């Protein structure tokens, strides 16, 4: 099958949050794109800036606002020829309203794509659990989008959020790919399924790097993969209608 190579779309990846998650996202974009040769793949510009201040710390009032860095990254992508922006960081989407009107390019909203995916692809799921950074949880990003689609959200309790989820996210950012991350994440996921979650959203792009899908008894929804699929659909549609 040929890919959307003739599409005029140039994917701009606003990354570095963190670097491993950005690399993982690009690998998923490549794997998701149909084709049998280099030429079948999408033109892509990656701006990976690990100096962007921590998004959770900013949302909790403990660190600088990352908005200027995100705007600068958007400018770099635009000047490099990108036609659309993808941000493979869930927590950074709390700042999308601040940059969307100034980026000069459309931003494909990862969390919105997850909500649509659950509605269209998994219509039998009405209650989902969320594993995400404290910043994403506090900002209500998934709560807002899933509520629009009538999906109930289950969140970790405070102890599990701090001890399990955030500990694991920090471990992955530090390079851990073993039980240091997978065991607390699996424990947090079990707590969510015990409370009725029919699926669990890996709502931080580090989480799929630390939590194998088979460690969870229900579907593990990967927003990074869903964003990659949305970009391929966008490029394919525009290549056939443009």
From TrEMBL:
EC number: 5.1.1.13
Pfam family, one: Asp_Glu_race
Presence of the UniProt keyword Protein transport in the record: no
Protein keywords: Isomerase
Keyword Iron: no
Molecular function GO terms recorded: aspartate racemase activity
Record family assignment: Belongs to the aspartate/glutamate racemases family.
Protein name stated in the entry: Aspartate racemase
Highest classification ranks of the organism: Bacteria, Bacillati, Actinomycetota, Actinomycetes, Kitasatosporales
